[in-house]
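Need residues for this backbone.
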C-alpha cells in the first residue's frame, strides 16, 4: 500500500538537486540514503525553499485507496530500516504467526525490531 521514497527516484532526486544537494551512490551528499524524514535538519536549511521542497522533507506522499478489510487482516507500519531487512511477505508471515500464538502486538513489534537490528554493523553499512 506504499512506495519507498529513495534519493535515486527521479522525482525525489529532482527535489534534492533543486535544494542544492547531490545524490551520489544512492545517498544525499554522500550521507543519508533516504529522502523523507522527520529529522536530518542539516538537509532542511535552504532558506529559499518551503519545507516540502527541502532536500529531505517530512511531507508525506499520500494516496487514497479503497480496500476491503476482512477479519484477521492487519497493517504493518514501520520505518524503511525494517522493510530493508525483511520482505513484505516475510514480515506479514512473521506477524501472522505470532498473532495466532496469542502474542501481544507490542511484543510482536519488539520481536520484529530484534530480528532486524544487528548488534554488529557490517563494514558495508547494510
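Answer:
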Amino acid at each position: 500500500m506504499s512506495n519507498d521514497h529513495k534519493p535515486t527516484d527521479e522525482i525525489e532526486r529532482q527535489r534534492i538537486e533543486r535544494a542544492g544537494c547531490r545524490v551520489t551512490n544512492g545517498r544525499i551528499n554522500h550521507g543519508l540514503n533516504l529522502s523523507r524524514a522527520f529529522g536530518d535538519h542539516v538537509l532542511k536549511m535552504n532558506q529559499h525553499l518551503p519545507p516540502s521542497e527541502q532536500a529531505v522533507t517530512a511531507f508525506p506522499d499520500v494516496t487514497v485507496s479503497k480496500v476491503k478489510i476482512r477479519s484477521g487482516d492487519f497493517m504493518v507500519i514501520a520505518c524503511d530500516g525494517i522493510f530493508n531487512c525483511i520482505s513484505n511477505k516475510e514480515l506479514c508471515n512473521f506477524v501472522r504467526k505470532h498473532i495466532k500464538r496469542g502474542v501481544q502486538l507490542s511484543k510482536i513489534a519488539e520481536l520484529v525490531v530484534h530480528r532486524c537490528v544487528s548488534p554488529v554493523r557490517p563494514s558495508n553499512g547494510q
